[in-house]
Amino acid sequence: MGRPFATPVTTALPDVRLAGPRVRPAVLALARALSGAYLRLGLGYRSVRVLGAERLVRAFDESLSGAARCVLAFRHPYGDEAQLMSWLFLRGVPREARRLGVRLPARPWAIFVHGYEVPRWSGPLVRWLLPRMGALPVHHSKMDSAGMARIRAALEDGPLPLALAPEGQVSYASDRVPRLEQGAARLALGAAASLAARGRGVPVRILPISVHHRHGPESRPSLLRLVRRIERLAGLGAGRGGQPIAERLLSARDAMLDLAERHYGMALPAEVRPEGRLPEAGTRLEALIGKALEAGERILGLPAGRGDPIERVYRIRQAGWDRIFVPGAGKAGGPPLARALADRKAGEAWYAMRHMEFVDFAWYFASGAPDGELVGAPLHALVEYAQNLWDLGNRLSGGAISGRLTVRPRRALVIVADPIDADAASRESGTDRRAAVAALTADLDSAYRRCIEESLREHE
After folding, report:
1. What pLDDT sits at residue 270?
2. DSSP secondary structure of 332-373
3. Residue range 3-31, pLDDT digits in tens
4. Contacts from 30-34 at CB under 8 Å and sequence distance 24+?
5. Using alpha carbons only, what angle is made at residue 146 by residues 143 and 149, rounded to the nearest 5 degrees?
6. CB neighbours of residue 95 within 10 Å
7. Is the pLDDT reported for residue 280 higher than 90?
8. Domain with 185 in it: what CATH number?
9. Domain assignment of residue 275, given as a range
10. Are 182 and 126 found together in one domain?
């Protein structure tokens, strides 16, 4: 089976079957051996700098020895954080432990949590690799009691820490925190309560990890090539190379929004625009987001307008995958008409999900920096905006995150914050579980924001 995001789906597909999740030492050893080369050649990283490494080493030391349980809560702003974290846990943590004179009780690794959609849109290698590295799948928008039970057991009783992204998915923003889901807090609080009830009152902590990319002058040719590709995609002519990069990006963005509004039947003639001008880009994107969600929900027959935009994205995504990946699809038997109708439903779902994929990116992009802040912004901010602007065009073209482009080479700055004690949050909130979850999530949000401030100071 290929990659369903790459080309339109016209046939219902048998669902992806993953092996039972279990860490295979031989697979982990191979990943450890290849991770350095993959980091440099596959991902384009020149270096990885870790601030607060002693906190990460301590978290692994306590987790591997059974003295504490830990959720390694890493931010997900770019898309390849799981790969970067894999290198960090396999190679970076042992390196930092040696530097600090800490002898870890076992070779470090973590159990990653991923969405069920990842093995569906990724290739055969990822589908083979994930369960053999112990990764645990979970659904975003439907009950998954078996999956959640596996995750809770891994956190409470497993020999390794749990690693997940509290943002739930890629957030496309490293210098701000658009949204956090409450899953990390719920898991940590649940583990603390369960362990205490079983007389195993070890501490349960959440360790915030923030990821930031930095670029030097050697990345500028790659950035300029990306800007030219964006301009061609948006239909802008050549001869703009003498203009500042920020102005070129903003012009391309406005051209893309013009095309998007025409596609969704929202274009305003110049004579009826308020004061002869278009609204701000964020306002235009919000209107487009509403239209796209309505289109996706209408095609799939879902109730319109229930929940916030990301909840609606999750609902459309789940419904779409459930129509594309059908148990028993491809097997002989059954009326030909029934098979043909299942294929039609799969094709319609694929097109409905193009609207969803646009919103999945545009909601985060709409809350980005105002135009004035892009002019004069540091190189890493221009790069991030350019990568996101390409993704805007990519999503409008019918693509998904698999079509995202990155500017290389790059350097990673990983900041590890102070651990957050789930037991303390539980004690402070008493019997009010909802308040405890909200407080713990707010603490995590604050930790990430302090990491962002630290990353900006490091850049100065």
Report:
1. 53
2. S-S-HHHHHHHHHHHHHHHHHHHHHHHHHHHHHHHTS--HHH
3. 445 689 999 999 888 899 999 999 999 99
4. 31/86, 31/90, 31/129, 31/133, 32/90, 32/91, 32/107
5. 105
6. 14
7. no
8. 3.40.1130.10
9. 220-367
10. yes
